[in-house]
Structure formats: structure tokens, C-alpha cells
Amino acid sequence: MSVLDSELAHRPESSGAANSLSLADAKVSVIVVAAERLFRLGLARLLDEDERLDVIGVSEGQPELVDLCAASSVDVVLIDLDLTKADSMGLVRSIASRCPATKSLILASQADWRVRPAMVAGSAGILLKDTSPESIRAAVISVHLGDQVLCNEAARWVLGEEYSVRLTQRESDVLRIVAQGANNAEIAAQLHLGQKTVRNYVSRIYGKLELSNRSQIATYLARTEAPRGPDLEDSATASTAMDPKWG
């Protein structure tokens, strides 16, 4: 059990698939995976206060974690979306593949474009980190019993209704050309726009998609389609002042 922080490592009292659980007779076993030690330990202790839950350990996301999940048949794994020592998406996929009876529940600082890929990878739900302990406890039990649990912000991303991400047609055109590796001058030539106008479009795309560089744009487009709002229009010049550093 070297993958677990020693303060909380102990054998689970019970495990098993969701359809065989009787909460009157067994506890839901849980592992908390998060980058920050104080956060994972604090959350683990809050969860362990619920008599229906049994936190068997906490982890930073080391490679041995999936082996432990398989060996212990843990019921639910809470996973920080912003891990520093592991790929959270890859961890969700590995657990879904190797431990089909184990449910993964994502914790995120904010809902963003990674919501849908996380669900596709196999997550049973997504909650914000500032969700109340009571709601997180209830969510753990719900996903173990076979439900999907999404905070309101994540649900809007799953349904494609996130207001801030809706791109105009021109922004969508720029997005796709950027993803092909074109620079601002090449984009301007293709779309018959000035380079300053292109910089403004790129900056607006970064803001709407909560991205910070061009490689992230390519990754975003590969994983999910950015919905376009039918009621949105581009200005003729896209002349809103933008910081040129985003170009």
C-alpha cells in the first residue's frame, strides 16, 4: 500500500459492485486522489465522518494506484482534475478499463472544456472542489449506486450550453485554422483580415475557451467541438482592444 499516505491507510471493510450493495450492511469504500496533501487529507477525514463511507486511503496519483484499486475492489475513487504527478484523464480511463466495478468521481476547481472528455473517459460525475462536504458524501453514494452526478456548471458543458464558450462563425473559422498550425499572418491571408484583427479573434477565443496557448487550441478541438451560438454575430472589424501578447 505504498501508494497511500500512511495516515489513512487501512483495509476496506467491504467492497463490491453497486448492484450488490446494501448500505444497511456495508460501507462504500473510497480512495481520495488529489495533488495537495492538506486537501486530500482534509477531504478524506470529512468523508470518513459519514458512517456509510470507509476511506481506505489517499494518494497523489502514483502509478501503483490503479493496481491498488484492482486489488482492493474499491468502490469509488475521488480524483482531482488538476493532478500534478499523474494524468487525471488517463487515470479515469485506466480505472474504467481495469476496475469496471469502481466508479470515478472528478473534483474540479472550475468546470471547463475538460468536462466532456472526462465523462467520455469514464467518470461517473464531476463536482466543484468548493462543494459542501454533505453534497460530496451524497454524490459518492449516488455514483456507487449507478447514478451520474454533475454540478450545474459541469452539466452545462456536457449539454453544450455553456454560455461563455459559444463562438461566432468567424471565431470558429479562426479556431480551426489555428489548430492547423497557422500563424497570424497566414490566418489573415486565408480569411482576408488584418493581422491585428486576427490577434483580437485569437485573444477572444482564448478567453472564451479558458485556454492560454495555441497547442491547447489544437487539443481542445481534437477532443470536443466548440458550439456556435446562432444568435451571435461578429463585428465587421473585431476592433475591441486586446492585449497583443495573446497573438
Explained architecture:
The longest helix has 15 residues, at 195-209. It contains ten helices and six strands. The chain is elongated and about 65 Å long. Strand 5, helix 5 and strand 6 (149-150) form a beta-alpha-beta unit. Helix 7 (169-179) crosses helix 9, helix 7 packs across helix 10 and helix 8 (184-191) packs across helix 9. It has a six-stranded parallel β-sheet with strand order 2-1-3-4-5-6, sandwiched between helices. The protein is of the alpha/beta class and 247 residues long. The N and C termini lie far apart (48 Å). The protein folds into two domains: 6-158, 3-Layer(aba) Sandwich (Rossmann fold); 163-246, Orthogonal Bundle (Arc Repressor Mutant, subunit A).
Name some characteristics of this structure.
single chain; 247 residues; Rossmann fold; Arc Repressor Mutant, subunit A; 6-stranded parallel β-sheet; 10 helices; disordered N terminus; disordered C terminus
Topology:
Layout: E1 28-33, H1 37-48, E2 53-59, H2 64-72, E3 76-80, H3 88-98, E4 103-108, H4 115-121, E5 125-128, H5 133-144, E6 149-150, H6 152-158, H7 169-179, H8 184-191, H9 195-209, H10 214-223
Choose one word for the global shape. elongated
> What is the spatial order of strands in the main beta sheet?
2-1-3-4-5-6
Q: Using DSSP, what is the number of strands?
A: 6
Provide the CATH topology of the largest domain: Rossmann fold
Span of the ends, CA to CA: 48 Å
- Give the radius of gyration: 21 Å
Q: Which band does the percent of strand residues land in? A: 5-15%
Helix fraction, binned, reads 40-55%
Q: Give the CATH architecture of the largest domain.
A: 3-Layer(aba) Sandwich
- Provide the residue-averaged pLDDT: 78
Structural class: alpha/beta
CATH superfamily of the largest domain: Response regulator
Number of domains: 2
Listing every helix as H and every strand as E from the N terminus to the C terminus, the arrangement reads: EHEHEHEHEHEHHHHH
Q: Please give the CATH class of the largest domain.
A: Alpha Beta
Output the number of helix runs.
10
Low-pLDDT segments: 1-24, 226-233, 235-247
Q: What does the largest sheet look like?
A: 6 strands, parallel
